[in-house]
Write a structure and sequence with these properties.
The protein is built from 6 helices and 5 strands, in the order αββααβαβααβ. The chain is α/β, with parallel strands linked by helices. Strands 2-1-3-4-5 form a 5-stranded mixed beta sheet, with helices on both faces. InterPro entries: APOBEC/CMP_deaminase_Zn-bd, CMP_dCMP_dom, Cytidine_deaminase-like, dCMP_deaminase-rel, Deoxycytidylate_deaminase_dom. Pfam families: dCMP_cyt_deam_1 (PF00383).
Length: about 160
Amino acid sequence: MSKSITNPKPDFDDIYMELAKNLAKRSHCIKAQVGAVLTKDTRIISIGYNGPPSGTHNCDEEFSETGCPRDSKGSCSLALHAEQNAILYAVKNGSNIEGSTLYVTLAPCIACARIIFTMKISKVLYLDSYAAYKGIGVEEGVEFLKKFGVEVSQYGTSTHGLVL
């Protein structure tokens, strides 16, 4: 049986970023919804989205008007980031994530970048700019990762990703 030219198979980058976008919809945060997918050798290791630790509360229910309390930098004081949730779940379950690829809907912040580097994740594809979201001048997390040898690219800016 020959391959159909009219129905090409989707690229894994497209599949995983689409999954990350759908996972973001699971977030209970009223200010930002972020999803992440951690993969290795074309297999999903773990998934995550931003929100408070499991079993604590849901921000959109407990703080439906204003969102949860903010820390001194204006970030949520109660939530884990999507990357953190995906990494923590993988490690909790004994997965070897060294050399893995992380797909995330928002570029990593500097704190997440340090975790990504420490856990030896080798590649990060992100959809949207964290700097633009926060109104800052530079992608601190992306620059940190690139400086220390992690391959980082914005999804949709190369030939492999769909511009969304």
